[in-house]
Amino acid sequence: SARAAQPKLLPAHSSSAITTCRPWHSATMRARWKRSIAWPAGSVSSTAAVRTLFRWPAAPFVTGAGSGIGRATARRFAAEGARVCIADLRLEAAQGVAAEIDAAGGTAFACQADVADAQDNQRMVEQAVARHGALHAVFLNAGHGGWAMDALDGELAELEQVLSVNLRGCLLGIRSAVRVLEPGGAIVVTASAGGL
Fold first, then answer.
1. Of 87, 21, 30, 20, which is closest to residue 54 (Cα–Cα)?
2. What is the mean pLDDT of the chain?
3. Phi and psi torsions of 141, nearest 5°
4. For the whole model, what pTM was predicted?
């Protein structure tokens, strides 16, 4: 079949870890979850009850979470009840976001990491698992925005930095996370026009 002919990009035991899926909090997923539960008499089968019973992803980490999309995503995870690892190259920025989440009643901790470094990726994953007991989702959002360089006269060092963070960093993040990701977990990578 066509499905069998597709190449496997990851070992068989981890191929389901990288997937495109609907957010757990979408109406479709909530409805599916409600239908799968035999609600006890007198219980409240509301969205709030579903979120209380089924907090997913419970323990994610987000790279580039010190600002922008990463910060917004980390705050949303925390608002949904997740215990979040806030990773950023700038520790002060990561600590600021973790403090915002803690002040709002959420749970988060800051971690400094250079995603272009293999050891930093491994340490980041180990810290997330040690702090929260598991890893349910990974959002690889860290990026270097120097992609609009002049092709003829631009500094090659700038190109090397872009490739190191935006390409190598994603590969290293996936390699580190996929080995400990909980079954059914997800890895999401931010992409932009810089990839073109």
1. 30
2. 77
3. -115, -15
4. 0.69
